[in-house]
Amino acid sequence: MVGHPAGNLVTSIALFNNKGGVGKTTLVYHLAHMFQRLGLSVLAVDLDPQSNLTAMCLDETELEELWEDSSALIDHGTGRVRAGETVADAVRPILEGTGDIRNVSPTPLVPDLWLLPGSLELSRFEDKLSHEWFRTYAADPAAIRSTTAFHRIIRGAADAVRADIVLIDIGPNLGAINRASLLAADSVLMPLAADLFSLNGLRNLGPTLRSWRQDWQQLILPRSPDGIPAPKAAMRPLGYVIMQPEMRLDRPVKAYARWLERIPGVFDTAVVGMDAAPPRDRSFEIATMRNYRSLMPLAHDARKPMFDLKPADGALGSTQKYVQTCFREFRGLAEEIATRLATRGPEEQ
């Protein structure tokens, strides 16, 4: 068991990279299950309108029930109680112009692990958030309510289930939904591939994150109305996780090593904001995770994490040893993240 990562406070981590296809949602899913295995109460939040985390956590019948009549996100209400509710349901009053957010109950997955489900309909919130952002500089209460909606929804859900840690899955872009999502995060963990696209992504998103943090903390938060709980928008760079690719004949080992060697310097300067990166500084490199794509089909069919696969699930012979290696790697990653959170709490900016 690991200790509580941030004393008596709930800590939130956004997993984010503005390049898709690096295994971000798979990382969120497995970290959520591993933190639960290590003794923490975990809330996983799906703020990606693609809702891949939700689809990974729930089976088809549950998804159909959850998203039933989801096209009625902006409606005039029938009063019918649905079997489940999503983040899109929580922001419906803001979209309709009928009120503020309403809290929704997270979906229990296993003991001490809950999901705040996403929905494709959340994409309709993008234009609203984009329009309201510039009005937050004038301390407009309605704009502040919209921009802090995710923060307040997450806080309400985390309080309801007494979560120790919140993991937030965010889509791969720098749009208004992701801005509001990241404002709600104490820390940001970045899954990366060792390639040109990830390096360019870091150079692009690093200054953007720092700009959002600075504007919120210096220009908006001091003027925010007292009656609207607002995030500190710490967005502290927790570090990055290297996600190894599949072996490819057209990708020489030397080329992979060259990109791998350049990541620490780019992360230090672009994301952390250092004037110059210390030589050979790898303090923000949390782990390198090997590619477990061969286990994914089995895990999907069994509706469980890869490191929980049993022989009855088809993980036979050498595959079972691979499952054990997967468990060790994810346990080590979760313990390292918990250690970093404990030594540098969410209040640190």
Q: What structural keywords apply?
A:
349 residues, eight-stranded mixed β-sheet, 8 strands
Would you give an account of this structure?
Helix content is 44%, strand content 12%. The protein is built from 13 helices and 8 strands. An 8-stranded mixed β-sheet has the order 3-4-2-5-1-6-7-8, sandwiched between helices. Helix 1 (24-37) crosses helix 13, helix 6 crosses helix 7 (141-147) and helix 10 (196-220) packs parallel to helix 11 (253-272).
- What is the global morphology? globular
Helical residue percent band: 40-55%
Tally of helical segments: 13
Radius of gyration: 20 Å
Class from secondary-structure proportions: alpha/beta
Largest sheet: 8 strands, mixed
- Low-confidence parts lasting 5 or more residues at pLDDT below 50? 70-83, 345-349
Strand order of the largest sheet: 3-4-2-5-1-6-7-8
How many E strands? 8
Strand content: 5-15%
Taking the alpha carbons of the first and last residues, their distance comes to: 27 Å
What is the string of helix and strand elements? EHEHHHHEEHHHEHEHEHEHH
Arithmetic mean pLDDT? 87
Short précis:
By secondary structure, this protein is of the alpha/beta class. It has helices at residues 24-37, 52-57, 60-66, 87-90, 92-96, 125-136, 141-147, 149-161, 176-183, 196-220, 253-272, 296-302, 318-343, and strands spanning 11-15, 42-46, 107-110, 113-116, 165-169, 187-192, 236-243, 285-289. Strand 7, helix 11 and strand 8 (285-289) form a beta-alpha-beta unit.
Draw up the topology in text.
Elements: E1 11-15, H1 24-37, E2 42-46, H2 52-57, H3 60-66, H4 87-90, H5 92-96, E3 107-110, E4 113-116, H6 125-136, H7 141-147, H8 149-161, E5 165-169, H9 176-183, E6 187-192, H10 196-220, E7 236-243, H11 253-272, E8 285-289, H12 296-302, H13 318-343
Parallel strand pairs: 1-5, 1-6, 2-4, 2-5, 6-7, 7-8
Antiparallel strand pairs: 3-4
